[in-house]
Amino acid sequence: MSKCQQCIIREFNTLRSLTADELKTMSKEKDVLTFKKGDIIFKEGNAINGVYCVKHGICKLSKLNANGKEQIVRFMKGGDMLGYRSILSEEPVTLTVTALKDMEACYIPKKEILDAIKENPKFSLDMMKTVCGDLRDANASLSNMAQKSVKERLADTMIFLKETFGEDEDGYLDIVLTREEIASVVGTATESAIRLLSEFKKKGFIELTGKRLKVIDEVGLLKLSQGF
Amino acid sequence: MSKCQQCIIREFNTLRSLTADELKTMSKEKDVLTFKKGDIIFKEGNAINGVYCVKHGICKLSKLNANGKEQIVRFMKGGDMLGYRSILSEEPVTLTVTALKDMEACYIPKKEILDAIKENPKFSLDMMKTVCGDLRDANASLSNMAQKSVKERLADTMIFLKETFGEDEDGYLDIVLTREEIASVVGTATESAIRLLSEFKKKGFIELTGKRLKVIDEVGLLKLSQGF
DNA sequence: TCAAGTCTATGATAAATGTCATATAATTTC
DNA sequence: GAAATTATATGACATTTATCATAGACTTGA
């Protein structure tokens, strides 16, 4: 079985603050899980008893609204920790997590995390920094959602996807989303998203090949996102 | 000078998890500050070196957007802790805080908070719980902002204000906002907010007396907020 | 107390966005 | 590999929301 001590992904998250001993215990207790594209890792309302340290793959975190529509709140990828909010606040999870690519993730029982927080102030602070960063981002998203137009938000989303997930060898975004999912990130109707994507394509901001998407003019998108 | 040990408000926030000794040190190091309605406590971009424990009063946390518009992200009142996100993530603050009522708040230097986190796991966990709760709320707001109509969001806001700040002896909300501020919470144009408030009044959901606002039919508002 | 400024209210209109309908393209399933 | 299903695309139209204009009500400060 793979050992946490030798796992590179750990350098990208708060687990880097653990001592060798703590890592060893964690390694013993963890499960290595795999998920196929489309698999649900956990659902809104579920009570989970551990966190997931994503090794690779991409997933979406979403919320179902009263009208049954899905709202994508954020994405996670290798290095991100999933479910820690629920563990720390001792509440069921409030988001549904779905794999967008095949994933591998380590499930670390809650006890290990809570022990480490109690024993290791460095880990504890690092953990807080992560939550605080997430909170800052969530506030910024809220403000954008409230004040920007759909077009501006779509431009933001294109840039965000490129910056976050990068491009493959052909220059296409290394994340594949349906139009419906794009609409759900932006917070608009699927048809509106489709229309605007076509417009962006016509204006030379992006290229579309089926579901694959290439950002051509990032500067143009950036200007657009700021209202020009 | 007032002592933290005897401060009741402490019971409402994470400082309740401190030991008597820790409280004593904190009490020695803290400043007691007052703010008048309209005063700015700190501004987006400022580097702060402590947190504010609100004793009483109400303030708004807002963000300026590219177009110069204010977006109110949340409110805080007695018992809430202000500025902890910035301290914990060692970043400048990303929100501007403005008093909406006269306020009293204790300024606690960063060192005291960080020391307590290092020394006291109970405080540390309690602190995390707070941040995580804020994060959960921010995600929920994001989802609402993305998927609800302006009318639904205004109904939500009315209910939220009543639940959070309560009513005075005449049944009016114990928080007074301008129409512009209400619009900023909801994320809409001031005129749209005014128009919808008039509509709500006509339909008997609320009563308006100048800036004072009374919720009459909370159930009606709730239904409306869910799209009926 | 009055004049200036700000806030609230409302109409008219424009712009943005959502909804419904339909057609084609892509994907899945048997 | 053909039929069924699902996803994408686009037009037509309805609805929501923003913007501009104007007027009266309320505050505030000299």
Describe it.
2 copies of one chain form a homodimer. Chain A has 228 residues and is an alpha+beta fold. Chain A is 43% helix and 22% strand. Chain A contains 8 helices and 10 strands. Chain A has helices spanning 20-29, 84-89, 110-119, 121-147, 150-165, 179-186, 190-202, 218-225, and strands at 31-35, 40-42, 50-56, 58-64, 70-77, 81-82, 96-99, 103-109, 206-209, 212-215. In chain A, the strands form 3 sheets. In chain A, strands 1-8-3-6 form a 4-stranded antiparallel sheet. Chain A has a 4-stranded antiparallel sheet with strand order 2-7-4-5. A two-stranded antiparallel ribbon of chain A has the order 9-10. In chain A, a hairpin with a 2-residue loop joins strand 9 (206-209) and strand 10. The longest helix of chain A has 27 residues, at 121-147. Chain A is elongated and about 55 Å long. The termini of chain A are far apart. At the A-B interface, helix 2, helix 3 and helix 4 of A face helix 2, helix 3 and helix 4 of B. The structure holds a DNA duplex (30 and 30 nucleotides).
- Can you count the helices of chain A? 8
Number of strands of chain A: 10
Silhouette of chain A: elongated
Strand order of the largest sheet of chain A: 1-8-3-6
Determine the mean pLDDT of chain A.
94
Helical content of chain A, roughly?
Answer: 40-55%
Our measurement of the CA-to-CA distance between the termini of chain A, rounded to an integer number of angstroms, reads: 54 Å
Largest interface: A-B, 46 and 46 residues
Q: Determine Rg of chain A (CA atoms, Å).
A: 19 Å
